[in-house]
Description:
Layout: E1 3-8, H1 16-23, E2 29-32, E3 41-45, E4 48-52, E5 65-68, E6 73-74, H2 76-88, E7 97-99, E8 103-104, H3 107-120, H4 132-140, H5 153-174, H6 182-196, E9 200-201, H7 203-212, E10 217-220, H8 244-249, E11 258-266, E12 269-271, H9 284-293, E13 305-307, E14 309-310, H10 311-321, E15 325-329, E16 339-348, E17 351-353, H11 360-365, E18 366-374, H12 391-404, E19 408-412, E20 420-422
Parallel strand pairs: 1-10, 1-11, 2-5, 2-10, 5-7, 6-8, 7-9, 11-15, 14-16, 15-19
Antiparallel strand pairs: 3-4, 12-13, 16-17, 16-18, 19-20
The protein binds inosinic acid.
Residues 12-13, 38-40, 125-128, 130, 132-133, 222-223, 227, 236, 238-239, 272-273 line the site of inosinic acid.
Amino acid sequence: MPAIVLVGAQWGDEGKGKVTDLLGSSVDYCVRYQGGNNAGHTVVVDGESYAVHLLPSGVITPGCVPVIGNGVVVDPAVLLDEIAMLEARGVSTDRLLISANAHLIAPYHATIDKVTERFLGKNQIGTTGRGIGPTYADKVNRVGVRVQDLFDPGILRQKVEGALDQKNHLLLKVYNRRAITVNEIVDGFLRYADALRPKVADTSAVLNSALDDNKVVLLEGAQATMLDVDHGTYPFVTSSNPTAGGACIGSGVGPTRIDRVVGVLKAYTTRVGAGPFPTELHDADGQHLRKVGGEYGVTTGRPRRCGWFDAVIAKYSTRINGFTDYFLTKLDVLSGFERVPICVAYDVDGVRHDEMPMTQTDFHHARPIFEYLDGWWEDISGCRSFEDLPKAAQAYMKRLEELIGAPVAGVGVGPGRDEVIAIRELVPAA
Ligand code: IMP
């Protein structure tokens, strides 16, 4: 049975949780493969809304095994709080597995994240301040602390000493902050060891043997393509690889085992934090999208920047991820516009670009070239088939499909789990 990868095709917050939820009981394992508690999935089940930041959204689905893969960065305090919150609401987290190789976010990572941003001044990335970038930096710099280190206090101490060595110089001398002691970090980490120990596993081995046993494994990306550290709008990106290739690295599942790569695409565009955004709206239409779409960050509560659909980005995303299918979310939010613009190309200093510009400079200068489609006024949340949609909404969806280069397998028409138009099965029949 297949491994399926699910990736956001824009700048995040496309509604990936809804797709995971829709796949529901057909998924046996739901795996986070990168990022940390900078993410935020909202899953609505039976009218109950659950916001999860670190756990895979499949944790809500009964019978599904949620897995935190090696590519994730784990803040143990946040993880245990999230587990406690779900348990208190009657959601079992007993099946959760955590990779022994996942890296730990320490309090000093969040401190460095925040002071670095402050020092960047007007060049700020607008990070979530959760310590994500500094934790990945330590991983690549080979001074990271991993989940498995919690179970060997001697090694843990050595690693924390190594990690703090340079950081304390930086904190004291450059950022004018107090030094952090090895003891406070080690003692803090060790407090979590017993609670986490039963959940820690060689998750790559577990997932590969699940695939051998014909189980369905969903590899769920957090953030999105345009926030990818290699393929996104660098440096205004997160510090990991949400794109499909990252699913292999961050889970220990090889590329030959992946059958479907599903892109999640919002019917318009949003972005949180700084960085270029060619179709951004600064007018009443942008405010309307934010209000009707509820465009406020699940993690930070920040208002999201809103704009029209950008087909250049979507087409680029299809290329980078090799999408086999798309799931289009929030089409209902577009009801009520006279005309609905789609960005089909960019004007960069007088030159038309049909593809993503090669350089950051050109992308910062990109101005959208729009095609205008007729809008629709009907409430489409009750539509359950493509034919139920108003003709103008059908035309909008068909035009997107032509531009983005992969078929639309499903459409979200409202926040509820049933408010979906299913066009093609995402999990192939056994
Ligand atoms: P970091 O991931 O906290 O380092 O933040 C880097 C950039 O990614 C910032 O612009 C954040 O706003 C953005 N970002 C991180 N996580 C998410 C997410 O889940 N959705 C949307 N944007 C995100």
